[in-house]
């Protein structure tokens, strides 16, 4: 392999030193503890619609909405007005004694007609808090029903559920867990295989057979632990940033739901990233077949659309009934839960979503986006897989398409695509460790639901241009 320095590496080196930041710039020493301690990230000075503007004067098309967050784009005057109105009324109320119309109206909007048996909402500030809250609800439900022996949790490999101790423990993002293993991770969690069709479906195996094999593995895990000892199974309906938009094979979640119901195990579906319409239906699980529903559902990024720090747990009537017949309360709380300003902002976002029929648009234009990504990039030398739904798509990169051999982490393939795309004026979301936590690269495309047709075309065009630069560089480096 040639010892060369790519333009992406040179750009990254010039702007951020040896870090993983994005367009970081030499600045005066910052007192903020950024994700990198070696250089500061670029400064955003304004954002509007599908674009963010940097202090350097560069205009960036937001092709990933941060981390699939800004679902209605940036700078909505309607949301700003709702926030101002709420702050003029009440900016904070402690939920131990009070509620607000903002929280009540948001819950009413999400849960009118009791969708799929979901009947209560618990609002917090982040997806990590939402997952911890869901785990506590699951545990308390079993305790209230006289089954305190249910302490085990089963989740899936190559999943991410948050950064708090509970959420990190059920997740399996290797890099984020590594410093804390055995010290700040729970010992009562085990993991089964992810639904990773690209790498795990056997040659000649049908989609249904693959799903059945995964469900059988889960059944074996439940039986090995003793089903009566398991309190919950946790899964992303569509995998997020760790595995890159991987969807389950047909019939998988139907089988999972049957198992959980059979054994009295609660099903927790994590839709912090893939929910709130991102996959073309408001709840991503609505595309998984008849009979699929969660006992607890986490929502987050699209709930507030980036206008407020908010996430939530939607609770099935079965779980609510268990607590009501027991102690009658949830033994958990946060100072800022159901924060009225956050709820008002989220409510305004959800109203725009509904009024402008953006979930449907996400589904319809998502088909165009899929076709464009497959047509323009699917056949390229280092693109192994194109997968996703709605406005939630990933490209997995490989060194060899025939063997699906991933790049060495030292190549930094996804990071270089991200850097080159941003140099060209496009933000995409990179991922590493796709295959096993260490090896593997992907990038995620997740634009605002109201992105214009022309902007959507620009997302694909700029991504293709960025990829072509990196492909050429890496191919040259691989030449003996």
Automatic annotation (TrEMBL):
Keywords: Pyridoxal phosphate. Its cofactor is pyridoxal 5'-phosphate. InterPro entries: Aminotrans_3, PyrdxlP-dep_Trfase, PyrdxlP-dep_Trfase_major, PyrdxlP-dep_Trfase_small. GO terms for cellular component: cytosol. GO terms for molecular function: pyridoxal phosphate binding; transaminase activity. It holds the Pfam family Aminotran_3. Belongs to the class-III pyridoxal-phosphate-dependent aminotransferase family. Residues 10-19 have a biased composition (Basic and acidic residues). It comes from the Eukaryota. Residues 1-24 are annotated as: Disordered. This is Aminotransferase. The keyword Cell division does not apply.
């Amino acid at each position: 392999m040639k010892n060369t320095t790519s333009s992406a590496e040179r750009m990254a080196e010039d702007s951020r030193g040896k870090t993983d930041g994005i367009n970081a710039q030499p600045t005066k020493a910052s007192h903020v503890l950024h994700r990198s301690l070696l250089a500061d990230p670029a400064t955003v000075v304004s954002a509007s619609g599908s674009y963010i503007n940097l202090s350097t004067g560069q205009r960036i098309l937001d092709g990933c909405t941060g981390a699939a967050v800004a679902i209605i784009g940036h700078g909505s005057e309607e949301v700003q007005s709702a926030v101002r109105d709420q702050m003029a009324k009440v900016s904070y109320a402690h939920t131990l004694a009070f509620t607000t119309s903002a929280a009540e109206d948001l819950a009413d909007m999400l849960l009118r007609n009791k969708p799929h048996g979901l009947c209560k909402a618990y609002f917090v500030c982040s997806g990590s808090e939402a997952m911890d809250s869901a785990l506590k609800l699951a545990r308390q439900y079993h305790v209230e029903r006289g089954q305190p022996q249910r302490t085990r949790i089963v989740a899936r490999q190559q999943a991410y559920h948050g950064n708090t101790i509970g959420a990190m423990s059920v997740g399996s993002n290797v890099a984020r867990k590594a410093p804390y293993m055995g010290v700040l991770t729970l010992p009562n969690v085990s993991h089964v295989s992810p639904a990773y069709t690209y790498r795990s479906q056997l040659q000649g195996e049908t989609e249904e057979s693959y799903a059945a094999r995964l469900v059988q593995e889960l059944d074996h895990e439940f039986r090995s632990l003793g089903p009566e000892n398991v309190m919950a199974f946790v899964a992303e309906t569509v995998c997020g940033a760790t595995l890159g938009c991987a969807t389950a094979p047909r019939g998988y979640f139907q089988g999972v739901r049957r198992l959980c119901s059979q054994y009295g195990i609660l099903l927790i579906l994590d839709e912090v990233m893939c929910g709130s319409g991102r996959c073309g239906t408001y709840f991503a699980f609505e595309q998984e077949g008849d009979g699929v529903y969660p006992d607890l559902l986490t929502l987050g990024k699209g709930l507030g659309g980036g206008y407020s720090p908010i996430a939530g747990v939607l609770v099935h009537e079965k779980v609510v009934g268990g607590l009501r017949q027991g102690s009658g309360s949830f033994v958990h709380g946060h100072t800022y839960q159901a924060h009225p300003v956050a709820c008002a902002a989220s409510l305004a976002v959800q109203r725009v979503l509904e009024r402008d029929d953006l979930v449907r648009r996400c589904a319809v234009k998502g088909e165009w986006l899929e076709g464009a990504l497959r047509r323009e990039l699917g056949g390229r030398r280092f693109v192994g897989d194109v997968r996703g739904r709605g406005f939630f798509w990933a490209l997995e990169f490989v060194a060899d398409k025939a063997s699906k051999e991933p790049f060495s982490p030292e190549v930094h393939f996804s990071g270089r695509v991200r850097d080159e795309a941003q140099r060209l004026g496009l933000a995409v979301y990179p991922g590493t460790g796709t295959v096993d936590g260490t090896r593997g690269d992907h990038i995620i495309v997740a634009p605002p639901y109201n992105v214009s047709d022309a902007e959507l075309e620009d997302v694909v065009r700029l991504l293709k241009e960025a990829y072509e630069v990196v492909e050429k560089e890496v191919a040259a480096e691989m030449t003996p």
